Amino acid sequence: MTKTKTAAAALASALLATGCSPSADTTEGIDLSAQARAAAESSGYVPPNGGEKGELHVYTWCDYIAPDVLASFEKALGVRVIVDTFDSNEAMYAKLKAGGTGYDILMPSSYQVAQMAKDGLIEKLDHAKLPNVRKNFDPAFTTQIIDPTFAYNVPYAVTYTGFMYLKDKIPAGADVASWAILGNPALKSRITFLDDIREVIGAGLMYLGHSVNSTDPKEIDSAVEQVLKWKVNSRKFDGESYKTEVADGSSWLGHGYSTDATQVIVGDEEAGAPPREDIGFALPKEGYSIAFDEMVVAKNAPRRDLAYAFINYIYDGVVAKVNMEYICGPNPVKPGIEALDPDYRALIVLDGETIKRGQVIRGFDAQPEVMELYNKAWDRIKATDAR
Predict the structure, then answer these.
(1) Pairwise CA distance, residues 26 & 97, whole Å
(2) CB-based burial label for 98 (10 Å; 0-12, 13-18, 19+)
(3) Most CB within 10 Å of its CB: which of 14, 31, 135, 163?
């Protein structure tokens, strides 16, 4: 997707607390092959002698790596990068647990990493092969990550969960920056919820004044009751469709991720999708979830050498800048952030006061009984006909 150059002031109004306004030099066909070669070399990558150089297999979220970033890596190393996508951590985890193999790099959210490590699905990282990571990680993001030691994980990008919405469909006087909007009867059958255990139950918890990481059965039960009240207004639970459905008007409000929403709002003029100033994005005032997606190396990765080369490449400042201009969200790569257009940087990197309202989703790998509570709560939400 080629991002559209749009005035920062207009986008600031359109996006409220977050937004996307790529700098003037954002164009299709940026060649980052020099950065790819340098990153591969410093990671210790040694190209095979002659013949086919192979494939790197990446399992990630949709629209989450800039095409120029992928193409340049392929060009520089003479390899193919095969990208498969998932729409929830639970779907990704279930596939791997069921025996899904052949991947080199996985991109789970932070809270899923410890469980994957415990299950032997990923390997500890050799940081000697990732010199760009320690050198270029932006410490301003430390409070938003779970494991600052990076034992198994390298932070890739942070997303904030809120509401993507059609401005003219929000009832007069309704506060779109509150979870309470989900219960507004004027939006009946026009709301799409994420198909995600932690995000949906977390919404109920935060609205009721509890932690998104609550372990209290009574609080979890009360969150379920709240979500079931909201479910009356739902069209569906889906992790991807809200992006197109809010844009085409079939949904008026989508519970979703900041990066997805900003990509739609900015548009892709070459693909016939102009900027959408009629769409906004809001973060609930009662609290919103923060989830870093991480790069991890799969256990028994077929091309571990290419995995390390690619992760090291992502943390090059020039590469990170191009990538952020595509995904409309921050990579925690300090030289890349510093190279962004100042107006754009101010829009995608949230200010300290806004960050304070957010809650980082954490895992329950050491408390399986708590995760069982959430699983049972989720089954109840999905099974109950709340109409």
Answers:
(1) 39
(2) exposed
(3) 163
